[in-house]
Amino acid sequence: VLAGLLLPAIQAASEAARRSSCLNNVMQLGLAVQHFEFNHEHLPPGVIDPTGPIRSEEMGQHVGWIVSILPYIEQTTAHRKFNVEKGAYAPENKAVRQHRINVLLCPSNPEQVIARRPAQT
Question: How far is CA 55 from the centre of its chain?
Answer without folding.
Answer: 20
